[in-house]
Amino acid sequence: MSQEIRNLEPKVLWNKFADLNAVPRPSKKEGRVIEFMKNFGNSLGLETFEDEIRNVIIRKPATPGMENRKTVVLQGHLDMVHQKNNDTNFDFDTQGIDMYVDGDWVRARGTTLGADNGLGVAAIMAILESKDIPHPAIDALFTIDEETGMTGALNLKGGILKGEILLNLDTEEDDEIDIGCAGGVDVTATRSYNPEETPEGSVGYTITVKGLNGGHSGMDIHKGLGNANKIMNRLLFDGFENFGLQIAEINGGSLRNAIPRESVAKVIVAGMYDEAFVFDMQEIINDIKFEFKTTEPNLAIEIVKSDLPASVMDLGVQEGLLRAIYAAHNGVYRMSADMADLVETSNNISKVVVKDGEITIQNLTRSSVESSKFDLANALRSAYELFGCEVEFGGSYPGWTPNVKSEILDLLVNIYEKQNAAKPSVVACHAGLECGILGTNYPGMDMISFGPTIHGAHSPDERASIKSSQKFWKFYLEILANIPERK
Length: 487
Hints:
Blueprint: H1 3-6, H2 11-21, H3 31-43, E1 47-50, E2 56-60, E3 72-77, E4 99-102, E5 105-108, H4 115-129, E6 138-143, H5 151-154, E7 165-168, E8 176-181, E9 183-192, E10 196-197, E11 202-210, H6 228-243, E12 246-252, E13 263-270, H7 274-291, E14 300-306, E15 311-312, H8 315-327, E16 331-335, E17 343-355, E18 358-367, H9 370-386, E19 390-397, H10 407-420, E20 425-429, H11 435-441, E21 446-449, E22 454-455, E23 463-465, H12 466-481
Parallel strand pairs: 3-6, 3-7, 7-21, 8-20
Antiparallel strand pairs: 1-2, 2-6, 4-5, 5-23, 9-18, 9-19, 10-15, 11-13, 11-14, 12-13, 12-17, 16-17, 17-18, 22-23
Helix pairs in contact: 2-4, 6-7, 6-8, 8-9
């Protein structure tokens, strides 16, 4: 890892981030980072323990003179999204993140950076290690599996935390203070089919959609970005309608909370349609690239001849699949009527896999309104069940209802205005922050979320602003120094 990262200011923050990023920590495989964090807490002589689900809690007493202030929960999640470019050789299970400085940005070479939520975790570690930063008594809560199910927050029991205020350090614009977020539910459709032997006289092709921006399926869902699964389905649908294209395999997307950047399909057409098929596909490709020329300038769609697969889907099942994905909603479903420019409800068709007689379609539906969340989930279920799929709802978690009369909100707004001579944006976000979940077992806790500027989260284009981290650090320290007294 480049020493240039450790030399960035504030050094205490970037050094903790570098230490953390040296530890592999993909979601659901957090064992090493859990041990890393426990060893860190124990090395400082602080009370350190795991709860039943393996969240890590570290407690630190108040600094002298701060003993009468309210106890604060500093919270971040240990896991990170593991995404890489197709041409990047990297093993998230064994390798630390390879970071570098690019102007004002810290980036990773061909992978996600892990600034979501590594910078927040590093900021908490820096306070736990500090000897000269004023702060109240602290419960540091490091949750697991935030990115793929929020199981750490969902399974945190009441009574463990002692704090009255929770500072969640997991937002991505430094001029925003978050007071609410969306909930979510996974909608997974599955179906089996009987593969058919590939007809004689067929020609094999591999269709590849790549070069899309991808991004966070909540925070970026309103940007009109391309979804590789939707684009691929459009190509396959046209090929089927006009040339009887048959599908052998589809592998599109990866993580439920990332807008899919790539999809690959293996298909066949009858040999007599060979040239006409390629010509027609090129016309559609040109249309799609024109439509996305502004939001997806690097979109690439390739159709190349390949070996014939041994088997394909039967046309009846295939038609149902293509029509169901065409009908399934992707993107913004409803904007909030209460908060300007806030996406209320959306869906991300995150993964489509067709192989060896099995079909799986994964979606992540988000909403800040619980009834609207299930309205869209039921619309998706209907589209997939009409095609004969079994549909399951899983991993449902609640949103976080904004509290505009929050005492900690008033404190943060005042500090921000004094430091920046400008008002912050007080917002609710369309991401799944853990605050809504934590609030179910700690209903009286005053919660707020803020963080440094991070762009491209959940994609290999993820990057963290150096200048913003300095702004965030100054803001963060002033908040801790001014936590209200106990009443």
